[in-house]
Design goal:
The complex is a heterodimer of chains A (115) and B (109). Chain A is mainly β. Chain A has no helices and 11 strands. In chain A, a hairpin with a 6-residue loop joins strand 7 and strand 8. Chain B has no helices and 11 strands. Chain B starts with a strand and ends with a strand. The chains are: A mainly beta (115), B mainly beta (109).
Chain lengths: 115, 109
């Protein structure tokens, strides 16, 4: 089966600019996650979708970050305006369902550098 | 206290050695546990689930100690290809996954 697709793989922007990342999960996976991974740290959940509804966005900095999954399939994560501390890899993951024992499959990530 | 804590390492071991490390968690109601492997500049990939009775997958053994609230991973007969960061994942009963910061293992020839 095709994996989780993400684009772009790399993005360099200046602070206060905006950026958007796209993710297409594995076909049939109802749950989609966006994680932020700063160098040397574990992935931190930004937002979790179940189909097109938000399950958890408690750690999403809503003043600058937004995400949507309008048709319950692919998703976009936007940062506007970007700050230096947003430099990180943004990982999208999907799972068949949101149950606790479910396994996540990650995409290759989008590496953001904010100058 | 962090939800999930790992010794960052690095653990530098020669080929053929055994290496083991733990991951502690703070929520005693945690239900599911996993080890993920992350190669340098790559995405995390599932290595193995951790069952209450402990489980083994080839050279890898995972254990759960509920009383002391930690899980462990042991790698026997280390290979160069085992060099990676190992992330522990803990899922409490509200299904909010928590990742540890990872333990880095470097296997040298």
């Amino acid at each position: 089966e095709a994996g989780v697709a993400q684009s772009p793989r790399y993005k360099i922007i200046e602070k206060r600019q905006s950026v958007a990342f796209w993710c297409n999960p594995i076909s049939g996976h109802a749950t989609l996650y966006w994680y932020q991974q700063i160098l040397g740290q574990g992935p931190k959940l930004l937002i979790q979708f179940q189909n097109n509804g938000v399950v958890d966005d408690s750690q999403l900095p809503k003043d600058r970050f937004s995400a949507e999954r309008l048709k319950g399939v692919d998703s976009t994560l936007k940062i506007q305006p970007a700050k230096l501390e947003d430099s990180a890899v943004y990982l999208c993951a999907s799972s068949f369902r949101a149950s606790g024992a479910n396994v996540l499959t990650f995409g290759a990530g989008s590496r953001l550098t904010v100058l | 206290r962090k939800e999930v804590e790992q010794d960052p390492g690095p653990f530098n071991v020669p080929e053929g050695a055994t290496v083991a490390f733990n991951c502690t968690y703070s929520n005693s109601a945690s239900q599911s546990f996993f080890w993920y492997r992350q190669d340098c500049r790559k995405e995390p990939k599932l290595l193995m689930s951790v069952y209450s009775s402990g489980n083994e997958d080839g050279r890898f053994t995972a254990q759960l100690n509920r009383a002391s609230q930690y899980i462990s991973l042991l790698i026997r007969d280390s290979k160069l290809s085992d060099s990676a960061t190992y992330l522990c994942v803990v899922i409490p009963n509200d299904y909010k996954l928590s990742f540890g910061a990872g333990t880095t293992v470097t296997v040298r020839a």
